[in-house]
């Protein structure tokens, strides 16, 4: 089901008339509206700080940082401030998966038990069952959201939310305890359960298991693997594993807004431990902007363009929300989101150090202002449709021509008579037919308002 965010974007595209070239820098009016919107959302959701970077292809076209990463020390947020990115870490784990796939180290259909024999993968019938790299990376394994080894972690989250006890820390299970839990864990959902489009049985445990399998398959510490194979090639110098701030590596302090007392409360330290592949990284808006740009490049070094597209298309790491792919990270004290529009090569990252923030409304706001700048310009010049269209792989052709300022087609002209074509939508023409049956022409452009292909009668015709 298309969500409200996507419906609004579709409406923007349908209403577009005279769009601006994608190379134009965001103008002062849009910039001012973005700044007003960020301030409004920051105030509405009580965020001590908000950092936003918007990217088009290889360029940051807008950035904004407001507030403080540390309220007590009045440390101002900047585009280079480090934040916990939580589940956005899964994107790096997914990329590492595809890298090892490209190298032939693993296969997406490989049984994870080949590398993690501690995992039995018991199905709902009580029998051991295999689970693949593809199932884990796309959240289709049916595994629970979290391992039973994380019971203390889950309890402490609730305890802190209930009591605000300063002595509580949030510690996910150690690798040792996580491995022990794999002997008894079973699927929460059946294999290959039929679900609505883009619905996933989201599993932090699944990504922790995935990271463990990748570590063993590569015969290298998982965190070292990601840093060496992804962060360094992309020059993400302020990205890595860690959730606790130190003198050498300052990470934003997380906060919870206590509405009844109208004050900010510091949130507990979070230790990712075994679930680091699912949510143990930190990064900056500048680094994540570079990461976004890498998804649009054909020579990004870390992955082939084909693998990048496969990740986006099949939801490997990414959450699909057409025409976007995205991923959100959330923990007590932090909210992060990365959003991509692959076709327009536009994306943005939002970093906050607050517990609650409505990204859907924020995304709608950014989309309304930014996407029309880069949307494909509809072809309005009738002359662009004129030409010879030859059936792909066949000998037939048709002509579309201008006469007295109107477009005509030679397709079935002996039956339809010389009736002019009419516009029926963006890059679409229609010939009034007979007996209630019209003939529809749908054209594809190359992104520069040049018609290159005609879809007619479910066949492809190429413009000569």
Automatic annotation (TrEMBL):
Signal peptide positions on this chain: none
Keyword Lyase included in the entry's annotation: no
Lineage: superkingdom: Bacteria
Domain Beta-lactamase-related, chain residue ranges per copy: 40-360
Name of a matching Pfam family: Beta-lactamase
UniProt entry keywords in alphabetical sequence: Hydrolase
A molecular function GO annotation: hydrolase activity
InterPro entries in the record: AmpC-like, Beta-lactam-related, Beta-lactam/transpept-like
PANTHER family: BETA-LACTAMASE-RELATED DOMAIN-CONTAINING PROTEIN (PTHR46825:SF9), D-ALANYL-D-ALANINE-CARBOXYPEPTIDASE/ENDOPEPTIDASE AMPH (PTHR46825)
Annotated protein name in UniProt: Class A beta-lactamase-related serine hydrolase
Lineage: Bacteria, Pseudomonadati, Bacteroidota, Chitinophagia, Chitinophagales
